[in-house]
Amino acid sequence: QVHLVESGGGLVQPGGSLRLSCTASGFTGHEYLIGWFRQAPGKEREGITCISKSGSSNSYDHSVQGRFTVSRDDAKNTVYLQMNSLEPEDTAVYYCAAESGWICGTSWYNLENKYWGQGTQVTVSL
């Protein structure tokens, strides 16, 4: 059974940085995609980034392009989200997600057929 555990959320001032981690277990050799979604109060959950198992494919939503970077350390079964130049609009619960696949395409940004972590709160405020 796939299990995802996030960590690293917290309170940060505008312009600051945070790094989220997602430790994954339960994948048994097949190709999968892993990445991040977020849900702000009163809004729908939205996908922000994806990375393939090999790391050769990744994608970013326009709202975070150039500020956020996704990476992975397979030795630790961990995916990271480095978030720089944070804005109050980035305040949300951030979820790690995973699904079977090879390429981070537009289908990644759908909510269906995914495994989810429990979420970690990120608050950007003075």
User: What overall geometry do the principal axes of the alpha carbons give?
Assistant: globular
**What helical percentage do the residues reach?**
under 10%
Beta-strand portion reads over 45%
Largest sheet: 7 strands, mixed
Distance N to C terminus: 40 Å
> Which secondary-structure class do the elements indicate?
mainly beta
Mean pLDDT, as a whole number?
Answer: 94
Rg from C-alpha positions?
A: 14 Å
> How many β-strands, per DSSP?
11
- The stretches of 5 or more residues where confidence is low (pLDDT under 50) are none
Query: How many H/I helical runs?
Result: 0
Order of helices and strands: EEEEEEEEEEE
Structural features, described:
With 126 residues, the chain is mostly beta strands. 0% of the residues lie in helices and 49% in strands. It is built from no helices and 11 strands.
List the helices and strands and how they pair.
Elements: E1 3-7, E2 10-12, E3 18-25, E4 32-39, E5 46-52, E6 58-60, E7 68-73, E8 78-83, E9 92-100, E10 115-116, E11 120-124
Parallel strand pairs: 2-11
Antiparallel strand pairs: 1-3, 3-8, 4-5, 4-9, 5-6, 7-8, 9-10, 9-11
